[in-house]
Amino acid sequence: MPFVHMYKRHFLFLTIINFTLMSFEVTILGCGSATPTSHRNPSAQVVQVQDRSILIDCGEGTQVQIRKNKIRMQKINHILISHLHGDHYFGLIGLLSTFHLLGRDKDLHIYAPEDLKDIIYGQLKASKTYLKYTIHFKSLNFSGKNLIFEDKKIEIYSFPMRHSIEVCGFLIQEKTHPRKINRTAIDAFEVPTYQINSIKEGANFSTDDGREVLNSKLTFEPNPSFSYGYCSDTSYYPELCHSIKKCTVLYHEATFGNELEKLAKQTKHSTAKQAAMIAEQAEVGQLVIGHYSARYTDLSILLTEAKEVFENTILAKDGLRIILE
Amino acid sequence: MPFVHMYKRHFLFLTIINFTLMSFEVTILGCGSATPTSHRNPSAQVVQVQDRSILIDCGEGTQVQIRKNKIRMQKINHILISHLHGDHYFGLIGLLSTFHLLGRDKDLHIYAPEDLKDIIYGQLKASKTYLKYTIHFKSLNFSGKNLIFEDKKIEIYSFPMRHSIEVCGFLIQEKTHPRKINRTAIDAFEVPTYQINSIKEGANFSTDDGREVLNSKLTFEPNPSFSYGYCSDTSYYPELCHSIKKCTVLYHEATFGNELEKLAKQTKHSTAKQAAMIAEQAEVGQLVIGHYSARYTDLSILLTEAKEVFENTILAKDGLRIILE
Prior knowledge:
Two copies of one chain form a homodimer. By secondary structure, the first copy, chain A, is of the alpha/beta class. Chain A has two domains: 2-177 and 223-316, Ribonuclease Z/Hydroxyacylglutathione hydrolase-like (Metallo-beta-lactamase, Chain A, 4-Layer Sandwich); 181-220, no CATH class. The first copy, chain A, has twelve helices and 18 strands. Chain A has helices at residues 2-8, 12-22, 62-68, 92-101, 115-126, 183-188, 196-200, 215-218, 241-244, 261-267, 272-282, 300-307; strands spanning 24-30, 44-49, 52-58, 76-80, 108-112, 135-139, 146-150, 154-160, 168-174, 180-181, 205-206, 212-213, 219-220, 227-231, 249-253, 286-290, 313-315, 321-324. In chain A, strand 7 (146-150) and strand 8 (154-160) form a beta hairpin. Chains A and B meet through helix 3, helix 4 and helix 5 of A and helix 3, helix 4 and helix 5 of B.
């Protein structure tokens, strides 16, 4: 990370802050499918990007996984639920209750299929729980790629996939970072502080004697902007490639190996090879496969089959952290 | 267990069968309260009695606890849910789904507050799941002690307690065991095989020459019948003592220590001392305390406070097995 390194020797404090703000980290909390086992939790992962924590899916046991993986629970302000198969959301009501019991008062944003709203509120009503915080519930739209959240640093998109019930994938991407200041040049041209922000955004600089200094002389290229795609659950569905085109890292389900391709088709899941075909067609940077059928204790066969198509593939496992930098 | 021991040397196979049939075993799957932590699961326990497996409460993560504790999942045919606070039932929908995914076709009996029915069926509908097995849902009645299940070996009762929402405690008790055959006497009096069952039930025997042989000469005392009381969650509520009078083992919540008696009252929970007072008044055989507030990492203070009132107290912990014999 050049930006951090440049300042490291002189401004340790700044470096730490920048490192925090600029990290893009994914923690796999669960990469199993259908039923939790004693060694593999159902789907859940946390994306920590630009000081935002986003939980994607929330299978049973997710709140314990959050604790075990030392994720700061109350930093999670956005929860994306891909679909209403239990292994992707049965842990949500428990997490919401725990937020409440721990005194949360910050708003929470949930993006999920419409039916989840009644499920959540029905359970809160049964226990006479009146949450101390507000939930903003936004129903997913299952047609087309949709921008579901945006702020000054990131964008989150949903897009439909193909499964036995309606399901969305998600794409979380950083907006373009500001250009990095060339401190030597800034000092040499005596650029006033109040113009620094516009220069970071790409503006040129006019000196007092009317000379135009091109931005490229005052700045370095910005840090790369990263993006993360999440595709689970889905059958092999090449149409989703345009929604995750060239993303830095793609998580794609790989419930089965080649030997069960027929079963994958029947159950509307993917094989590891099919996940890799999507990664290749979408030209992503790296593929992470997961959502393994419980029948696989040795996952090397899935990895091998994926790598034959897309070399830069890794296996998800519970507790894995992927740091983009 | 005299009956088992008597046959041990000669009939190993019989001994094993009898041991299985006659055991009364409680496995604590979770003894935490409110929120699961990485070292304590929310409320759930399995009572295995006379070859029946009964699950009491089903907090989040129970199905994984069932696996970890090597309980045979599909043997569970009865589930009792005390009340609709999430730490007592959020794991139920996941367990029901797993039963289904594993191909269960045996009926399941659930005894729970009425509202749970809609919660369960709402979630099954959202995932378009049509269970392969039948659930018999029986709503709990919150007034008086009620026999909610009975077969030839056991009885299960519910009874109301006092909490912030409606809640039932449960009592599982064995019916009186048949008297044990005195093989030497049976052989000496040449009792025909077809009369053995009635003799086990207490009948006398008439010999061919008209002599009446008293049952006490043909049999030994039956094995003792055990009973198990479950009281969680409840404030200190002495009225419940008559429902669990003289039970062999009582599990009673002890969310707080003496120093938080006021908080216990406010939140309608009990202190360890109050749990012990219930045990003493109900004249139970042994007290197991649990449902600890997450603030207690060292539980010795709770044990000490309970033991000052009722000496035969032990601490529940996840994975504890209590075998009555």
